Amino acid sequence: MRALLYDALDDGSVRCNLCGHRCVIPEGHRGICRVREHQGGALRALVYGRLIARHVDPIEKKPMFHLLPGSRSYSIATVGCNFRCRFCQNADIAQMPRDRDGLIMGNPCTPQEVVADALKHDCQSIAYTYTEPTVFFEFALDTAKLAHGQGLKNVFVTNGYMTTEALEMAAPFLDGANVDLKAFSDDFYKQQCGARLEPVKTTLRNMKRLGILAEVTTLLIPGLNDDPRELEALAAFLVNDLGPETPWHISRFHPTYRLTDRPATSVESLRRAREIGVRAGLRYVYMGNVPGEDGENTACHKCGTLLIERWGFTIRHNGVVDGRCPKCAEPVYGVGMSKS
Fold it and tell me: Does the global pTM surpass 0.85?
């Protein structure tokens, strides 16, 4: 499949304009993602229609708490990623081409089949998730266009490293996104992910400008991104640049992949981080990977009434009425927040 968003350069190479790396790729080589290759003067998307994962998930698993709560989301992925996070939780598929000499696996599938299967399983959205949707952008875009035509929402679960050009191309068909804001330090991004912080901040600002519902997730890693001053700066960015209504998910880290010298995040650390977000003025701050904690629930930011009670990915109670708090009538941020 011929790729979108690239330029042919005078020296015979091509520049990929899909993500913030903007790789310059010589003939016969691949970009950092290892799934886009320069062949005969054109950039090719090697993973188009080759799905490595297809599942029906609760939308809360993304995590998306403010888009159609309690609904099902048809979730797909190909292999590949444009980051090389040392703590990658899906490294077996996300890092496959990098770790296994360019290997690309996946079962053939068309956008039409994805949409039909989503409807068959009573899903209300399609999530492009598990790996990085930016690297299978062409397939995601074709699928998203068809999905919208059938009344389905589209959600990216992403590291937020796509270019402005890519996001603007997807925006008419992209309803929501959960963006990993992995830290608020450029050094962390360079050392732990092989990337930079600023392009992610730009993407989040662009999502706000384009009207895409963005929720933000930070995996809290002991000793690496949990300094209170850094978390205060991150929370201030969310409030000032995106708005106090921006949901922030603070998730518990477990040792994995190439980062196994750190302990799991303590619940107390998650609580402290959540308090930082609340003090900064964020209205919806959640704790992830700790089922049973109050930090999973949605409360009215004005009067404190419990609106949505969760246990893990399950909704126990949804008291939102016509998109508002039933007690004080304050609007609740999100899409389709009322119980259907």
Answer: yes
